[in-house]
UniProtKB/TrEMBL annotation:
Name of the protein in its database record: Histidine kinase
Species, as recorded: Streptomyces griseus subsp. griseus (strain JCM 4626 / CBS 651.72 / NBRC 13350 / KCC S-0626 / ISP 5235)
Region span, Disordered: 89-115, 158-183
Pfam families reported for this sequence: HicB
Domain of life: Bacteria
Amino acid sequence: MVPLVCHHGVMDLTPYVDNLRRELAVAAEASGDEARVLAERLSAPLESAVRLTLLNVLSAAMGDVTRELAPGSVDVRLRGLDPEFVVTPPPVPEPVREEREAVAPVVSAPPAGEADDGTMVRINLRLPAHLKGRAESAAAAEGLSVNAWLVRAVSTSLDGGGRASASGRSRDSGGRGFTGWVR
């Protein structure tokens, strides 16, 4: 048995073709000189047929591997006379990037008559890319994090249009305030 020879994703079929050529010569040798001469004459033309057959076998095997790896895959490509394996791993879910995404923990001012107990809650906010970019620009222009800017915008909206200052205190909300945090 010939061991699998593969360098950097390219598999060398030459040892397999040479092994088949030797096996054919051994079989022909047992049948006499006429068979040996015929085997030698057939060896060279059979090389491309043997390579094509091996490629078909490898392609079928990689098809089975691909079904097991789905949604990843393994493709077989021809590089010169030898097959090359191209492995495409399944996509890895992206980790949540809290600092860069428009997903922010938000703490709003307590409704009228309720005390602010300092409890923070987290919400996931999904914004269209263009709106996220505008929020990032507006926050940067005011020297705030996106989280702080969003907390202020929500508070301002819920307090009836009163504008909050950069310190987090609402100017028109009768002294009520809110707190927030940023990672």
